[in-house]
Amino acid sequence: MPGRISLEQLGILNADVLIISYAPDDLRTSLESSPVFQAVPAVRNGHYLPVSLDTITALRLPSVLSIPHGLDQLEPGLARH
Questions:
Q1: What is the spatial distance between Cα 44 and Cα 59, in angstroms, rounded to a whole number?
Q2: Helix residue ranges per DSSP H, 1-81
Q3: So what's the pLDDT on residue 78?
Q4: What percentage of the chain reaches a pLDDT higher than 70?
Q5: Which carries the bigger pLDDT value, residue 6 or residue 67?
Q6: Burial grade of 46 (CB within 10 A; 0-12, 13-18, 19 or more)
Q7: For residues 71 and 7, is the Cβ–Cβ distance under 8 A?
Q8: Number of C-beta neighbours around residue 44 at 10 A
Q9: How many of the other CB atoms lie within 10 Å of CB of 37?
């Protein structure tokens, strides 16, 4: 499925900002505590933004209604980064 990577592949993430949604939610705690995840440059530099599943879905399946909703949800987090 597009948009999924394994823990072993986290080292390939090289982005200014990392936006991630979790399904199920308990995966977030597991991933955030991983030393591999903490070593990702965007995470290490404080440019990591966890978002809800509905926000990421709005952006992955864009429509006239979902794009404004998704961007409204992202804006506060992106403003901090």
A1: 25
A2: 26-32, 35-38, 41-44, 53-60, 66-80
A3: 86
A4: 95
A5: 67
A6: exposed
A7: no
A8: 11
A9: 18
**pLDDT bracket for residue 13 (50, 70, 90):** confident
Element (H, E) at 48: strand 48-51
Peptide bond connecting 41 to the previous residue in cis, omega within 30 degrees of 0: no
| Nearest CA among 54, 53, 42 for reference residue 14 | 42
- Alpha-carbon distance 26 to 16, whole Å? 25
Q: Count CA atoms closer than 13 A to 68's CA, side-chain side.
A: 2
Domains of the chain listed by start with CATH number: 7-80 (3.40.50.1980)
**Token output for 32:** 């955030």
In this structure, which amino acid lies at residue 54? D
